[in-house]
Amino acid sequence: MRVQRFVQAAIVGLLYTAGSLLAQGTMENRQGSRHAGPGAVNPSTATFAVGVTRDSGASFVTTAGINDTVQIRGEIRPEADNIGQTADIFVVDRLLGGGFKMRDQSGVWIDWNASVSSLVPFREDVFLDAVESVDMFSGTLGLAGEHRLFLGYLPPDGILRYHTSGSPLAIAEVSTQTPQEQAKALFAMTIHQGIVQDNCTFCHRPGDGATAGVHQFAIGSGQAEIDANFEKFNAMMARGKDYILGKVRGENGHLGGAALPRNSAAYPDFERFLTLLEQR
User: Fold this and answer.
1) What is the mean pLDDT of residues 11-18?
2) How many helices (H) and strands (E) does the chain have?
3) Residue 16 burial by Cβ neighbours in a 10 Å radius (0-12, 13-18, 19+)
4) Strand partners for 71
5) Is 249 helix (H, G, I), strand (E, B) or coil?
6) Is 153 left (phi over 0), alpha (psi -120 to 50) or beta?
7) Which of 38, 82, 115, 273 would give a disulfide with 78, using CB separation of 3.0 to 4.6 Å?
8) DSSP sequence for 62-79
């Protein structure tokens, strides 16, 4: 489907109180509406939830620092007739006093003029489950201020469903996470699955005689495996960031060759992870 839909999904929620982080156990649900023309809405039975987490969903926050590593998660509970249909999904961020931005399929935030006809989708032709999870964003928050996040979907009937009340997030100029906390969040969100499990464990795994006496990573995606593998890297930092980066690039006698070339998409995240560990 081409565009002409909406989906407001901003960046997260606001209220930076003297360094205190406000946390809650679940994402906040918002009642949905149907777009019925410029400035007009009709009721919808769809509901939407948006939440910001720094610990892979164990808790959700309404305040974060500009350098904090977070995930923004969304959930769509479509109208009953839309379950099983395909739809385009939209994500919009409103910075109070600074206009709207929408996130396109390449992950870029681009200016939006608040006209539904000019919306571009974040995801196209998504098969809608009864509860549709949306990974809206993962990384560091780059723009301080008070944000409102919106989420929406456009099914085959061409009527946009969305929530008119944005989920708030306050992004502070200072980080609310220590470098070690930022490193652990980044590791859980990106490094553990996308690099360690999908790459390192091909050789560095328990039972592999070739890597006996060298670090061996736990296999699995549970919290125990994440914590154990994070500590492996903490210990390896005794050799220094440059040494580890050289290894993954296939240097320093790495028998596995270039596991993570410098020009690969994942390399910048891995380098940032090690830089944060270096500051512990």
Assistant:
1) 30
2) 4, 14
3) buried
4) 53, 138
5) coil
6) beta
7) 82
8) SEEETT-EEEEEEEEE--
CA 176, 180, 186: angle at the middle one, nearest 5?
Answer: 85
Residue type, 126: V
Please enumerate in sequence order all residues whose Cβ is within 8 A of that of 241, keeping only pairs 6 or more positions apart, or say none: 271, 274, 275, 277, 278
Query: Using one digit for the tens of pLDDT, what is the confidence trace for 152-174?
Result: 999 999 999 999 999 999 998 87
As a 3-state breakdown, the chain gives helix, strand, coil percent values, each rounded to 5, of 25, 30, 45
**Structure token digits, residue 169:** 């997030």
pLDDT range class, residue 121, cuts 50, 70, 90: very high
Cβ pair 77, 133 in contact under 8 A: no
**The pairing of beta strand 167-172 with beta strand 63-65:** parallel
Cα 113 to chain centroid, rounded: 24
Taking the C-alpha atoms of 104, 143, 65 and 149 in order, what is their torsion angle to the nearest 10 degrees?
Answer: -50
Q: What is the maximum span of the chain, computed from C-alpha positions, in angstroms? A: 66
The pLDDT value given to residue 17? 30
- For the segment 75-99, the average pLDDT, to the nearest whole number, is 96
Q: Is the pLDDT of residue 14 over 50?
A: no
Q: What is the pLDDT of residue 278?
A: 87
Distance between CA atoms of residues 1 and 159, nearest Å: 12
Ramachandran category for residue 19: left, alpha or beta (phi over 0 → left; psi -120 to 50 → alpha):
left
Tokens of 148: 């409102």
Whole-angstrom CA distances from 180 to 8, 71, 93, 247 are: 33, 17, 28, 22
Contact between 168 and 14 (Cβ < 8 Å):
yes
pLDDT in tens, 24-49: 567 889 999 999 988 899 999 999 99
Contact call for residues 78 and 153 (beta carbons, < 8 A): yes
